[in-house]
Amino acid sequence: MARKLHRAHDEAQHRPEASRPDHNRRARVEVEFDEQTVLGALFGQFDTNLVQIENRLGVYISARGNRVLIEGPEDAVARARDVLKAMHQRLLTGQDMDAGAVEALIAMSNEPTLDGIITGTPGAPPPILIRTRKKTIAPRSVTQIEYMKALVRDDVIFALGPAGTGKTYLAVAQAVAQLISGSVQRLILSRPAVEAGERLGFLPGDMKEKVDPYLRP
Fold it and tell me: CA-CA distance, 141 to 115, in Å (whole number)?
């Protein structure tokens, strides 16, 4: 069945349950997309993007026409809805959508203020930006805001988080911005020496030949 898309209109129907918080509460949410030109990119080839959301969040997603129905645990359904909206918004602004971008949005959907950060308040600029010659990078979650502030403020930072949440990307962007502004004179990129089935002492040749395998990309 062809899956199609969304935007602007949400209808949620919840089964009657106790008002106390319950992570096992089930929900159904229907999302309707007015702009359908990007639906193919949104769903991915053979619906791979939708399947990725289903597997990561434990929900069931079905689509008919321009409507998408999401079913599952209440919290997971809300996150899946926000991820689909964020994906659609990114595609409308001309950004690419691949598995890494979907994973990043899924990871960031755990932030309680994701919806407000993704959609943005009209006229309200982000609290911090990174500007390079090619583009301006704005934070997309509360955690990224704090991370970007720390990149400006601190000399040494340890960043922990899921793959695709912008740890390396933001650090490199900040380094490039500082190089352009002249606040630093050069950039030094380092990586761990990862063995590829060999041990350094057993490699033949002089010191340069022994070290070169560890400096490959």
Answer: 9
pLDDT digits (tens, 9 = 90+) for 63-114: 876 788 999 998 899 899 988 988 888 888 877 788 888 888 887 777 544 3
Which pTM does this prediction carry?
0.46
H-type alpha helices, 93-189 = 99-108, 114-119, 142-153, 167-181
Spatial CA neighbour of 177 closest among 143, 139, 146, 134 = 134
**How many Cβ atoms are within 10 Å of 12's Cβ, its own excluded?**
14
What is the maximum alpha-carbon separation in the chain?
Answer: 74
Rounded distance between C-alpha atoms, residue 86 and residue 109, angstroms: 9
CA–CA gap between residue 80 and residue 101 (Å, rounded): 14
| Per-residue pLDDT tens digits for 146-174 | 999 999 899 898 988 877 788 888 998 89
Number of Cβ within 10 Å of residue 22's Cβ equals: 12
Helix runs in 58-162, H state only: 74-92, 99-108, 114-119, 142-153
**Any idea which residue has 């352009």 for tokens?**
180
Strand partners, 60: 71
Phi, psi of 23 (to 5 degrees): -70, -15
